């Protein structure tokens, strides 16, 4: 039987392959647009009305930087407490407050100046420090807390200003066992905490920092047993 003829096909290695051209037009257009934008920006910055724009941009970036550097120390539980707090009697809280324009505060174009001991005595607040054997200055940022402790060996007088602030002090004559008042951001307050009574300062201002000065009539060893800490669990 005859073998069927096989037909073979040979592939030629000399076939021409056509390559599609790669267009660089989009990249060229992008480069042209960026160059045009940069030239427009340079031209704008050379004009006088660019200064307010740059100043606004600088202030915005400064604000963002400060927000990241000083994050709020508030927490949801404390924010809920902030909403419920009610201001009580200044007398029960051993506190007297003054507006920035009060005649009881020495003031001039530089600001205000007070003597906390004399002011407390003149305001008939008893139980404060008669002398300042120990003095400390401090800041409380928005949502922050200081104090919440009880000294057994010293009387203390405070000056509080700068932000909306809650001052709490133990007082057995009050139903809750403590008196609590809110100091306004535009007020200066002088408060006292006699020895053996707990006190706390809480900044409830959304933006400003509270500033305070504490004057104690004896030096406290905070590592000793003469101070009780974390007196109130709701703070």
TrEMBL record:
Q: Tell me which PANTHER family the record gives.
A: OS01G0810200 PROTEIN
Q: Which species is this UniProt entry from?
A: Solanum chilense (Tomato)
| Chain residue ranges for the region called Disordered | 1-25
- Check the record and name the Gene3D superfamilies matching this protein: Jelly Rolls
One Gene Ontology cellular component: endosome
> What name does UniProt use for this protein?
Cupin type-1 domain-containing protein
Taxonomically, the superkingdom here is: Eukaryota
